[in-house]
Amino acid sequence: MMEDHMETNIHHNTIRKAFFHFSAMTNYSYNFSCNRCGHNPPVLIADANWKVAFDLPVNLLKRPSAENIQASDLSVNITDQWEQLEKQLIAAGFCDGTRSKNPFCKELGYSAFAAWVGEACRAGPVLPKTEVLKGLSKHFNNPGKITPSLPLEDVLFRVLDSKKPQKAELVAACTELGVSAEGSQSDILNRLEELLLYKDIYPKMFTKLQKTGEKPEEIQAEVSDDAGSDSDHPFPDKVAKAKDGNEHSAKTQAGQQFSVTLFPIVAENEEKLLRLHKGVKNTKQTLLEFELCHAKLPDLQTLLPLEYLEHQKKEDLPALPWLTDDIVNCRISQLVDGQKFKVLPTFEFVCWWRDIKTTGSITSRNKKILQDLHPDTVILFPRIVGGKTPESGNHFILWVIDGVLKQIRVYDSLQLYPSPNDWEMDILRQAFQETWDLAAWDVQYPQQWHQKDSQNCGVFVCTMAEMEVRGIKLGQDTLSGPQLQFLRRYHATSIICDVMVEEVLKSRQECMAADINVCVFQKLGTRGSLYPEVKNLHWVQCESCKGWLHTDCAGVSDKATRGHFTCGCRRKLPLNVDRTLHILHQEGIDGLIDNNEIKKIYEALHADEQKSSRMYLWKHPATSLRLKQRLKPKFCHFSDENTIKMTAKIKAALNLGSEIQDLNLMFDVMMPEIIINILQKNDQVSRYMAEMFLASGPILD
Question: Per the domain annotation, does 517 fall within a domain?
Fold first, then answer.
């Protein structure tokens, strides 16, 4: 009902959190009647209600030790404990999704849980804590049992290293480690493997696993029959082992379960990632580039924040953020590099939707990415859904458009969007009509892993894309918080594997002029950059804001970089150009510039002595229509009367006619370049600051 009224989708965790807040802020008196028990019956709420409120496996709870157990562990003040929980739940609404630490969050242990017992059936607030006894390892409670002489981790090490561990050994290991021994042998093996996620608990095993990438004599990946040859597979050694039919595979009939050995983390890449986090100071610097997809440091930080790399205490860690579409696009593009797959970034569907909304059909420009599309191609298409239009949304899903099987597979970790809507299918049919007839295709929602939180859908999409590329069919696992954190670490360390950290840290920062689309060497995606023949770029740094500019963008000579330079960042916008305005009011247009100066400006621009993105685009009109359109609103800031006078002056000085090319030169190039020259000359501003003036839009009158 709320979703219908608000015309939006509300995540189940949002409802859950709202209920917690309501419960925590409500003064429960339990004053109700029962037709059997009468008025105000005694009330008891089992401690299991507490446990389901936390996203934490029970086996990770801090266990009490029989050797040093204290009196405080054997009793609990339920009034204080439940009041603490109420504060924690209320504060979560303010802290979750931010870097702020929840001040009421405490480490969970067996002694922390408390059942609520109503006042009518207890003598006071302090009650005995029998839950502690459940947390003690079974060998402490059974003194007659022979305990192994090896430490618990070594017990796990020995069992998992065994070529053919017996089920009895596995059950014994589970008993020693306090985890469930239910299920088949493969289920138990997989459950024991998950303990290896927690390096603070089992450091030896974690180190071994990270170095080898898999356990001896064991293979965790299921490889489909049509995944290609062994040499084409990303993990050919695993393919060979899978074909040998190892009986201890984590694969089940229902599909592949989660296993850390599927996602080996390279220690060297983890070190590189940490250096990038700490070393890159300019957040606008492009770190990753895959065809049409780019990502910067803030995008990378959404995948794995610095605090998680530094292995800080759990209570000091910020909430994990939602991934940006740029990092998701880059990761999936990296996965298909060299494979028989194609990636369509998230923004492609938005472009198609806009075209159909405005013109009724997808333009040839936005179909260009589908040129020469082979009918047997498999397309990975990440989407952001959940909003009123494709331009907004709050949830990542993945469409796999399979030209081989003639089907569309949908991966949605929350099971909210198991198939494209009718209008989405209409857009897809129009986009791919030259290659496929999607009307006859099947739409499937295959078995897949799921999430139960609200911020890891992007991680799931990256993981599902990798499973598609590797040909691994999945089971129905619902992943826990530690497993998802491990996947984030895996994808973050994998995506930067080819980044040359030394070059990134040594390289100049991105030119500030690129932010307002006036950098004279700005990149044009797959089409290179402006002035591609210039190989040696000269830079100057503002001593105030520490930002970088190309000397051509700053409007200074190479020699001037040896002295002091300020870009104008300390000056307020809109820029104060009193000197230029005074001359304009006193002497008019003729007082600002004469014909000889106009000729000199044109000659310098035409000869590339003064490089200009406007002049380059005029000389090479097919370079970037998009950039040309972005620059057009910045061509003139005179009143209508003075604009007519200035155009007449330019026309006379350069002997221009009325042809389209001459008009483009006059309005798109000369008019803004003359204004830049006037402001530099009269008000002593840098070329970059003059461009900022043009971008801000005030009228010179």
Answer: yes
